[in-house]
Amino acid sequence: MNRRQFSKTAGLGTLGAAVGAAAFQARTARSEPGEEIIDIHQHVNFHARSNEEFIEHQKKMGVTTTVLLPSGSALSRVSTDRGKSNGLAARVFGTFAAARLAKAHPESFAFFCNEIPDVDGADRELEKWLENGAVGIGEQKFNLECDSGPMIRLYEVASAYEVPFLLHFQHEAYNKGFDRFHKILERFPKVNFIGHAQTWWGNIDAKHVQKDMYPKTKVTPGGITDRYLADYPNMFGDLSAGSGKNALDRDEEHAVAFLERHQDKLMLGTDCADTVGEGGKCSGSGQIANVMQFVSDPEIRTKILSGNAKRIIKLG
Ligand SMILES: [Zn+2]
Ligand SMILES: [Zn+2]
Predict the structure, then answer these.
(1) How far does residue 55's CA lie from ligand 2's centre (Å)?
(2) What is the pTM for the complete model shown?
(3) What letters, b where the CB count within 10 A reaches 16 and e where it falls short, cover 52-87?
(4) Domain 41-296 fold
(5) Domain limits of the chain?
(6) What's the gap in Å between 236 CA and the centre of ligand 1?
(7) How far away, in angstroms, is 11 Cα from ligand 1 center?
């Protein structure tokens, strides 16, 4: 599908009429050749996917640069749910493996660093990696309050190094206390925070029920996430995972307006563990197709697919 056809179907989407065959066509469409796509949310050894399969998956999706988000150390403590949340609960490898892959393919990968916040020396561990090529901190996915002492210590590292900080918000599971996160946004104005996961996306809706992980109802604008994005210059969102895709799929008319409203704050991420890189099993390629479908203005599309990521992540 060429750009003109794209604009046509996406334009229908703007009117809330992108249903039926045209919408299906746009949904299955790929990005145009040569279009830059930065995927800010992927993992090494994601559910034991090999690096060869992973590299092929990213190519298949049309991704040009991928940001690798490692896990922390594998330890049994309350913050790791006694080890169940080790490897980001998805067998993901740590910073060393991410750094190794990124350094072997510097043209297509960059890496963040990570550690369990309440482990002794977590701050020094992150500092070591930030001095050795890491360009951010995360994905932070530990059983802690988002404004607890150990988290604040890591936000201080991000602030000192002026790197972004990516969090998995999940009600009663990870980075708890999402409704208080505005205090962190106010306290650390130099840190660009990136929100992700079920509780981040559920709260685009002012009527969100906190225990619902993948709500299917129409969205009422003005939820906590919508307000954080609108009110805080240092709050960003990545579109990754089933939760990010669901947030757009559940209400297409809302999706069009939301992507436009937060065009300077949203970044493409995929976070899918499949080996296919296309079709129904690959939420990442589905979300890329969503951006193509719901964003008709090519300039806004470029911001979401690559421009915003380049602005806040030092991709070298
Ligand atoms: Zn996550
Ligand atoms: Zn995929």
Answers:
(1) 11
(2) 0.89
(3) eebeebbebbbbbbbbbbbbbeeeebebbeeeebbb
(4) TIM Barrel (3.20.20)
(5) 41-296
(6) 15
(7) 32
